[in-house]
Each structure stands twice: as C-alpha cells, then as structure tokens.
Amino acid sequence: MSAGIEARNVTLRYGDTTAVDSVSFNLKPGTIHGLIGRNGSGKTSLLSVIAAFRKATSGQVLFDGEPVWENPQAVRRICFIRGSGDTVAADWPSDRVSDAVSLAAAFRPEWDSEYAAKLIDRFRLNTRAHISKMSQGQRSALGVVLGLASRCPLTIFDETYLGMDAPSRYVFYEELLADYLAHPRTFVVSTHLIEEVASLFEEVAILDRGRLLLQEDVERLRSRGASITGPAGEVDQLAELLTVLSSRQLGPTRSVTVYGDLDPDLVRRARAVGLELGPISLQDLFVHLTEPERTTV
Amino acid sequence: MTGNDRMSITRHRISIEGRGTFVLWIPFVLLAAAVTGLIATFSEITTSGWEKWTQLPRWYAGAIGFYMTWMYLPVYIAHGRTRREFVREAPGAIIVLSGILAALVAAGFAIEAVAYRAAGWPQTLTSTHLFSSPTDFALILVEYWLAFLVWIVAGTFLGAAFYRQPGFGLLLVPVALMLVTVMEAALGDDGTISALPPVIQLFDLTPQGASLFRALGTAAVCTVIGYGLTWSLARELPMRRKPA
User: Fold this and answer.
1) Which of A86, A91, A101, A157 is most worth mutating to test chain B (most B CB atoms within 10 A of its CB)?
2) CA-closest candidate to residue A120, choices A79, A89, A149
3) Is the ipTM of this complex over 0.85?
4) Element containing residue B214 per DSSP (H, E)
5) Helix (H) or strand (E) holding A75
6) pLDDT tens-place string over residues A241-290
7) Cβ partners under 8 Å of residue B128, min gap 6
8) Which of A269, B12, B226, B227 is deepest in the core (most CB within 10 A)?
C-alpha cells in the first residue's frame, strides 16, 4: 500500500504571518514519521495543508503523485486527527462516543469496527458517554480511536496525546506500533513529547519558524552526535574538541552530549580512557537545532 | 469494510435532520393544539391557527441550512470529503428536507381541518397564499416546499459565512434575509415579509402578485443565487481548529 507524500515549496500565510515557508520534502510510504518543532513552528499548519484542511498559499502537496487539494481519491485515504475536535460533531450535549464512531464508520471506507471497539475498551471509554462531559484526555483518546480504526493509508496525529494520562499515552504508542506492524501504512506523528515517542519514529522532520530544518532517518540523525560519560577531567578533555549540547555532573562523573560526527580516532581515544559513548537523545538534538544559543560550548 | 461512498453526505444529512424534524414535529403540533385550545376557552376561534404557526418551521429550515455548513461541512472534510463533494451532494438533502417539512406543514393543516370541523370552527386563512383553501394540499405542499427550500439555502450561505468569520457572517445577514424575503413575497404575504417592505416595492412582488409561475421562477433564482453564494464561501473553506 503506497502512501507517499511530497510537498513542493509549500507556503501558508495567515495575513501577514507566514506559518509555513517554502517547505519541500518527501515522506516515504509505509513509515512512521515524526514531525517535531517548537510551539508556533508551523507543524499544525503544514499538516493541515497535507490533509487538505487548508489550501496552501503557494506550492502543493502530492499524495501518491496526485494533488491532495479537493481530490476525493486522495482525501479519502488521509485521516488527520487534531485532538478529537474535527472528526466529532459534538454539537449537542446529548452526542455520545457511539455517535462519533457511527459517523466515522459511515464515512471512512477502510473503517474497522471491531478494532474500534477494542480500542474503546483499551482506553476505557464508555460508548454511552456524552462527549461534552468527557475530559480532554478522554476526547484525545477518542481521537486516537477514530484515527487508528480509520485504517487510512496516511494517518496523521497532531499532538493527539494532549490531556492524556501516562497509561493512556502508552496505550496509544503500543497500539500505533502494533497496528502499523499488522497493517503497514504511513503515519505522521507531531509531538512535543519527543523522548516518549522517539522510539516509534523511523524518520524525523524538524520544523522551525515555518521552515524545514532537516528531515532524516532517526538512526542517522542520532549518529550526528553522542553522549560521553566518565571522569570529569577525561570528558572535558575530549569535549574541548566538540560542540557540547548539554552537560551534567554527578560527583566526579560528568556526562556531556556532543554534536557532530565523532571520527574513529576520537572514539578509540575515548574508549581507551574508559569513557562510555552512547547515542544522542533526539530531544537534545532538537533543542540544539532549534535554539543553538542554548548550547554550551 | 464499511463506509458506502455514494451520496453519503446526502444520506447522512437526511437521516440526521429528517429524524430530528419528526421528533420535533410532534411536540410542535401538540403545542399548537394546546395554545389553540387555550385561546378557545376565552375567545372564539375564527381563523386557522396553524397558518400562523408555520412561521416557526421557516426559521427551523434556516437553522438546518446553517448547521449544514457551519457544523457539518468541516466534519465531512475531516472525514475525507471534499468541499466540492459537499456542495454537489447537499442539494439532494436540501430538496428532501424541505419536502419533508412542507409535507409536515400540509399534514398540520389536515389535522387542523379535522379538529376544527369537529369543534365547528371555521378554518379561515388570513393571508394571501398560492393556495386559497387550507385543504388545497397540493398547493400547500408546493408553497411551503419552495419557501423552505430557499430558507435552507439561505441558511447554508450564512452558516458558511459565520464559519469563515463570525463578523463576516453578521455582515451578510441582510443578504440572506433579502433572499428569503423575495421568496416570501412571491408566495404571498403571511406576515413573514412585513419587516422589509422596501424590498417588495423594489421588485414589485406584492402579495396580490403571488402566482405559481412567479413562485417557481423566484424560488429557482433565489436558490441559484443563494447556493452560488454558499459555494463561493465554501470552495476554499479553511478548517479552523476546534478544541479537543
């Protein structure tokens, strides 16, 4: 099932404000992509254009080579979940979870009712519950149900975890991964909780001030830096040669996160003096790339 | 696999609003009967009460149209439908729903005819209509079908305007009122249009001029203009973010 996305110079403006600025990228089909960025970086705006929720001011988004805007064949296969707000007509106090599920079942060609029932059970949602009386976390969980059970070839979750407690968030991540393995398709997950979801991502795109900073395979991205832990003196000596993103000390032990490729000589030298080398955390990398002035060199 | 694609928006709207209309109609008729009964205790009943009550379904029709674009168009987009599909499929629902409302109004006249006959009251009409008798059900159906059609269309137009920007919607209220007023004038005057007499004078659509031909023509023009305006607002409608 192919579900590749191509953005070509996508720009989205709201009046004088440029939310997305000439963004171009390709999203590989059958992959879980992470879209990360700071508040106001343009993530939701970009995803809105991908899902044809908004028309780009200029440029276009192609889904399997076809423009998405006002294209029935394309939008049928895209499910964009922002919380649960858009996909639920919670217009009357009497609207229930079962109404939201019926609506999705009526409109989503690949809807899986059994899976929806299983997810409702896992998130401990009550189908008779009034949506207007549900907490934000429960509404977010309902959004996850609607997104996953839609089985859309391209499913996008935009900060869908909002208000969800930790157990519910972990259910979301588990189900996302399990369903992806059982029914491979393309997911885009936009999030602030980078470390919590990082293990799901195969590719990551970082957006900053409306521009695409980078888009890379997660493993490759992580190899752009490293964490070095060991005696403070030894660590400092090595760190002098590198860009330090963060540094922590506990007693005589120091741990630094460094950015940049470690050449083999440096790695050998570090190991020779007993330093431990580990992968860089995606969060440290994200902070460095989006706010380099925070970096301690 | 579920999710039948063919005219899914039409079927969904008819199912939701049609069911709601039937549910509301019963208490509405009971309320009208109760008020008539109350009036009869201290005054003589000489005219059709139902004729006056038909004002409310017009506003209800407008609300159906408003809701169609303001609430449900974004929901359909979120569920993978295009704006163009909505604009193409909604007219089917508008025609059926206005027909259901018109049939219920005609049924109201029929119920009233039976009740008035039993009570010995005259069911006199006080306004000009396409129909001259409260039992002329064919013309009653036509008149209200056309009226509700334009009211719903005007509602879709206003709903789209309010969704885009509430202030913009407010500015366009007179345009929507103009559409329904011109339509009401072509159907005769049962009190709906008295608020905007200059419009009637401008188009010379006096109540005495009501005729089936004029009503059909006016409904066609108002519907095309109103729905054209709806399309102009909906065709690039940006989805606003709703709270989760």
Assistant:
1) A86
2) A149
3) yes
4) helix B212-234
5) helix A72-75
6) 888 888 888 888 999 888 877 788 888 888 888 889 888 888 888 887 78
7) B188, B189, B190, B207, B208, B210
8) B226
